[in-house]
User: Fold this.
Amino acid sequence: MPGSLTHQALLYASQDDFVGAILPFVRDGAALGEPVLVAARQRNVDALRQALNGEARTRRVELLSIGQWYENPSRTRAKFVHWAVERAWDRRVRLVGEPPWPLGSEAGVREWARHEAVINVAMADLPVTFICPYNTSELPPEVLDHARATHPELLEDGTPVDSGTYTRPDDFCRRFAGPQGPHQGAPTAEMEIDPARLGELRRLVEFEGSAAGVEPDRLGDLVVAVNEVATNALVHGARPARLRIFHRRGELLCEVGDAGAGFEDPLAGQLPPPPGVAGGFGMWITRMTGDATEVHSGEDGTTVTIHTSLAG
Assistant:
C-alpha cells in the first residue's frame, strides 16, 4: 500500500475557513481517484456540498454529518479504520473527521482527546491522510491544546507544519490515568464483587440502568461491559473488589474498583487484541460500549469507570 498515516489538525475560525481548506483537499483526492470521506458538522457539510456543486455525486466522495457517522470514540475509530482498509488497496484514502466534543462532560472530552491520540497508533500503517477540523471560535483552549498535542501536523493556510507540542499517544493517554477526583454524592447502589455474585451484579446494573433511563438498546451492552470489568478485577486485580453506581448530571457511572495495581499499558482496550491472542477483550468490549471509560490507578488500587449518557 502507498505510504502510511498523515494526521493533521485544521484549526478554523469560520465556515469559509473550513470550506477553503477542505474543498481543495476533497477535489484533489477525487482527481487522483482517492476515496474521500468527510464527517463533519451539518452546516459545514452543507457548505462543502454546495461548493462542490454536484461533484460529490459523481466521484468517490462521501459527505456525512456528525450524526450520520459518529458514535462513541472507540466505535467511531473502528469505523474509520474499516472504511479505510476496505478502500486502501493501491491508493491513498482521504478522511476528514470533526469530533463531536461533549463540552458538558469532562470525562467525555478526555475520551475524545484520547481517541485523537490513539488514531496515530490505530491507523499508523494505513495509507491515509486524515484531517481533523477544530472550530477555534467555539471550542475552549483546552480542546485546542488537545488538537496540537494529538496531531503531528497542523494545517495552516493549506500548508502542513509540524506541531511543536505533539505528544506520543501513550504519554498523552497516561496524562489522564491519574485520579480525577471523587464522585459527587453517594452511590445509588453498590455491592461487593464476588465470583458467586456475578449474576446478582448483572441484575443490579440492569435494574439501575433501566431506572436511570439508559436506552434499552444500550442497556444490554452496559451489563456485559460491567460484567467484563468485574471479572477482570477478580482475575487480574486484588481483593477487595466493589461495584458502585452513580446517577448524576445526565449520565450513569458504573465504577468497578479493586486493590490491584491496574494496567501498565495506558492504551489498554483502545486497540482490538491481535489475532490469535486469547486475552484483552474485556477492556476492548468496555470501551466499545460506554461514552467514556476511565482507568485510574494509585496507592489505593484501581478503578474503571464507565460513563453512559442518558437520553433527554
Summary: Residues 6-174 form a domain with the Rossmann fold fold (CATH 3.40.50.300). The radius of gyration is 21 Å. The longest helix spans residues 216-236. Residues 221 and 289 are 6 Å apart (CA to CA).
